[in-house]
Amino acid sequence: MHARALTLAAGFVALALVPPVAALLNQPFYLDLVRRIMIFAIAAVSLDLILGFGGMVSFGHAAYLGIGAYAVAIPAFYGIHSGFVQWPLAVGLSGLVALLIGTVSLRTSGVYFIMITLAFAQMLYYLGISINAWGADDGMRLARRSQFAGGLDLGNATVFYYVVLGLLVLLLWLGHRLIHARFGMVIRAAKSNEPRMRAVGFATFRYKLAAFVLAGAVCGLAGALLTNQTEYLTPSYMHWTRSGDIMVMVILGGMGTLFGPVLGAFVFLLLEDVLAAWTTHWQAVLGPLLVLIVLYARRGLWGLMPGSRDD
Amino acid sequence: MTEPLLAVRGLRKRFGGLVATDGVDLDVAEGETLAVIGPNGAGKTTLIAQLSGDLAPDAGTIRFAGAEVTALPAATRSHRGLARSFQITSIFREFTALDNVALAVQAHAGHSFHFWRRAREERALREPAQAVLAQVGLAARADVQAGALAHGEQRQLEIAMALATHPRLLLLDEPVAGMGIDESQRMVQLLRTLRGRHTILLIEHDMDAVFALADRISVMVYGRVIATGTPEAIRANAEVRRAYLGEEAPA
């Protein structure tokens, strides 16, 4: 417990110090980069809830990233800039779509589940690139970031940064409670041995579906943040390679750990940022790294951190 | 005459060309222990899977506690009072022994849409689970990861998980399979304490265990029940000896 508390405390202090340090160094770029990473960390944590804890290998998680992004950009396109409208819409709509996709795809398992979730996400992607009014495959610019009247000004880079950090910390805290509560025990045990769960009397479908919807809704929030981050909407947020990226973050950081996906998002996106400056074939470095992790570190990079065994 | 707790009529299950269950009729009266024996491939595990709801029969009916359950899913049958153990040990290996049983308790303690309170701190789940572990002789092993328990202990844990659901009928699929002499004696001892208190349908190869526990025995061969009777009657039955106990029929 002690070692983990220290590891986590160090991590959060480091994140909290990014804005002043970036200001001191006069490098606002780092603020932007870390904020982007934290947004993907939120998406990765949400995927890990179903992938790592629930054993549901969804290969279409980027769909909710896209829905969240559209839920901000489309109202903005029609002049509705209030975050109080956009963000609940992003969460609600993503959850609703996850409910529909989950209701169908959770009747399958294994490779079929992977393929069906992938197919749904690609359908939404092609829907996105075909709607000319909303930018088709070019996407569209977000005229302004979500407005929170009388409250936070996301136009201020530092304020936006702390909003994202706050949401990430909140998510990790709620997630920690959830995985140790009855609900979490059910989805984790269903991953371990689903026939046994049914035999002792659990109707597992409804719990898995609820987890699937929760994960989709949280990823929708990440999508709303992402489109605010880039101030741009593009259907490529929903492309299957994006789902793959998020999945790699989870696997890299540690499936079935709460903080692993956060670490995974950092390693993945920092590698991309650093290596892409040298070579366009940066994934040639990422690939072998991923293979090593999968072969030798069962709990990913997080499993190598001091105190990580406690959660 | 009152209806038996479990009444199976005309149960059939076919896998391609193989008829695994071929018109089985079976009654289990409240409080009795019925053993189903038969050679490998006779369809015993297929029968259990249909009774527990893991496998849908092609034809026939299963009535349990006065109601038809033929089409009900496994989880619903568990709530009606059916509990099974698996021939191949089926536990939550990454969880502790106590977690395993507490999950079985949880399944019968209201819904599990609780997102906040730590399940491991809920006394309503942990205390009954601890009591059942003690009942099967695993009290001292409560905090051991289930996957790290010895084979015999894992089998005991299976029984504990079944008991934690307060079953009216226990479906036990070869509970002493793969056990050493000591372990199997301990398991028979445990099952003896359950006899009479619970209604039991027992599938078993170990004849010592069967004759020690069963009130009645049914013999299955090629998906059919060829004989049912008291242990003495079965021992004496010529058809059973020929089909199962491996004796040549006199020429």
The total count of helices of chain A amounts to: 12
Beta strand % of chain B: 15-25%
Query: Which fold name fills CATH's third level, the topology of the largest domain in chain B?
Result: Rossmann fold
CATH class of the largest domain in chain B: Alpha Beta
CATH structural class of chain A:
Mainly Alpha
Strand order of the largest sheet of chain B: 6-7-8-3-9-10
Physical arrangement of strands within the biggest beta sheet of chain A: 1-2
The mean pLDDT of chain B is: 93
Regarding quaternary structure, what we see is: heterodimer
Q: What descriptive keywords fit this protein?
A:
heterodimer; A: mainly alpha; 12 helices; 2 strands; 1% strand; B: alpha/beta; Rossmann fold; 4-stranded antiparallel beta sheet; 9 helices
Descriptive notes:
- The complex is a heterodimer of chains A (311) and B (251).
- With 311 residues, chain A is mainly α.
- Chain A has a single domain (2-310), classed as ABC transporter involved in vitamin B12 uptake, BtuC.
- Chain A has twelve helices and two strands, in the order αααααβααααβααα.
- Chain A has helices spanning 2-24, 28-53, 62-77, 83-105, 110-130, 157-180, 182-192, 194-199, 204-230, 240-253, 260-278, 283-296, and strands at 140-141, 232-233.
- Chain A has a two-stranded antiparallel ribbon with strand order 1-2.
- The longest helix of chain A is centred in the last third of the chain and has 27 residues, at 204-230.
- The radius of gyration of chain A is 19 Å and the shape is globular.
- Chain B is globular, with a radius of gyration of 19 Å.
- In chain B, a hairpin with a 2-residue loop joins strand 9 (216-221) and strand 10.
- Chain B folds into two domains: 1-81 and 167-251, 3-Layer(aba) Sandwich (Rossmann fold); 93-166, no CATH class.
- The mean pLDDT of chain B is 93.
- In chain B, helix 3 crosses helix 4 (123-136) and helix 3 runs parallel beside helix 5.
- Chain B is an alpha/beta fold and 251 residues long.
- Chain A binds chain B through residues 174, 177-178, 180-186, 188-189, 192-193, 195-204, 207, 210, and chain B through 52-54, 73-76, 78-79, 83-84, 86, 90-95, 99, 103-104, 106-108, 112-120, 122, 161-162, 164-165.
